[in-house]
Amino acid sequence: MHPIQAPYPATRLRRTRQNDGIRGLVRENYLSAADFIWPVFVRSGTDIVEEIPSMPGVMRRSVDRIVDAAIEARDLGIGALCLFPYTGLEERTEDCAGAWDPENHTNRAIRAIKAAVPEMVVMTDVALDTYNINGHDGFVEDGEIVNDRTVEALVKMSLEQARAGADIIGPSDMMDGRIGAIRNALETEGHQKVMLLSYAAKYASAFYGPFRDAVGASGALTGDKKTYQMDPANSDEALRLVARDLSEGADMVMVKPGLPYLDICRRVKDAFGAPTFAYQVSGEYSMIKAAAAAGMVDEERVMMESLMAFKRAGCDGILTYFAPAAARLLNAQ
Ligand code: PBG
User: Fold this and answer.
1) What percent of the chain has pLDDT over 70?
2) What is the pLDDT, as a whole number, of residue 214?
3) Which residues are catalytic?
4) Hey, whose CA ends up nearest to atom 2 of ligand 1?
5) Contact 41, 282 (CB under 8 A)
6) Are 106 and 98 in contact (CB under 8 A)?
7) How many other C-beta atoms lie within 10 A of the C-beta of residue 168?
8) What was the pLDDT predicted at 219?
9) Ligand 1 mutation target, pool 84, 87, 96, 137, most atoms within 8 A of CB
10) How far apart (Å, rounded) are the C-alpha atoms in residues 127 and 221?
11) What is the mean pLDDT of residues 112-121?
């Protein structure tokens, strides 16, 4: 693979590791605040900022206080926020109508952010789970998660987000055909500039545990998501999903979870060369926080090392709850 490399001692690979200056010169990858998308949780009420018990340091904010997060992100050089609604059981229904309500938490938050910080890129989540009494990403009929009727609902949900001013729509539902259907509806209604970041390779993962707490879905979910999210044993299937979503009009694709699936990030980047993102999910975040709180690892160093791993694996950007903390460190360097 490296035929021109002379044998030892002509080649001593430690020569280029001997001090900060030379290490800086040969460094292959860089992280910056501009690489991050910061996921934030929106809830009902006013003037509320509450910590999520299973995700230390991560808050749920009422719409009026979401603007603070947007200002913080802008000041730190973070380019984008991704909104997730927190809904109590009383806000959930079987018909999931809250998902396409123009006044739902997400749509109100989009308008509030765009009014206060217009240059902030706003990404949304498209899936029915946060409005579904069943906690599933699609409609449940006779115990089955149905595809095509769900896609129609996802289209309505996406259109309301685009009308509210979202820049990036993020379908995280894993239904078949939704990218094409959403893209077609966006074009038809004149939202030519709205981007689609498809959660193309999303695995049925236990690493989402703390997030389901964060959005109020833990109590609601019946069964698991294995009939629509991917089997962690598969890798070729991820490439088929990415190919399919790009062909239907996705601008960018995502692999999720992150660190346990870096091999998928690399394969996707090498195969398609499309803008590729990874989601460092709630369980990955909370495991690092818990280990650091127990004195087992150095939180800052493990955080930065885990984020750099995504760049090395070929990702263009990272959705991470560490976004503000990591940006603060990077900006201080
Ligand atoms: C569901 C959704 C999930 C996450 C983002 N969107 C959870 C799930 O699929 O059950 C997980 C994010 C995280 O764990 O940080 N639409």
Assistant:
1) 98
2) 76
3) 202, 256
4) 172
5) no
6) no
7) 19
8) 64
9) 137
10) 14
11) 98
Reported as type and span, the H/E element at residue 276 is strand 276-280
166 in Cβ contact with 191 (< 8 Å) = no
| Domain segments of the chain as ranges | 30-332
Q: What atom in ligand 1 is closest to the CA of residue 283? A: 14
Residue 217 has pLDDT above 90, yes or no: no
* Cα separation, 67 vs 79, whole angstroms: 14
* pTM of the entire predicted model: 0.96
Q: Give yes or no for a contact between 66 and 38, defined as CB atoms under 8 angstroms apart.
A: no
Statement: 30-332 belongs to CATH 3.40.50.10170: no
- The Å distance, Cα 316 to ligand 1 centre, comes to 20
In this predicted structure, the answer to whether residue 212 has a pLDDT above a threshold of 90 is no
First to last CA, the chain: 36
Query: What values do phi and psi take at 72, rounded to 5?
Result: -60, -45
Positive or negative CA dihedral for 55, 216, 36, 239?
positive
Burial of 281 (0-12, 13-18, 19+ CB in 10 A): buried
- Give the residue from 286, 324, 330, 289 showing the smallest Cα distance to 308: 330
Return the SS3 of 257: coil
The answer to whether the beta carbons of residues 324 and 73 sit under 8 Å apart is yes
Q: What is the DSSP string of 191-236?
A: -TT-EEEEEEEEB--GGGHHHHHHTT-TTT--S-STTTSBPTT-SH
Place of tokens 């999303």: 202
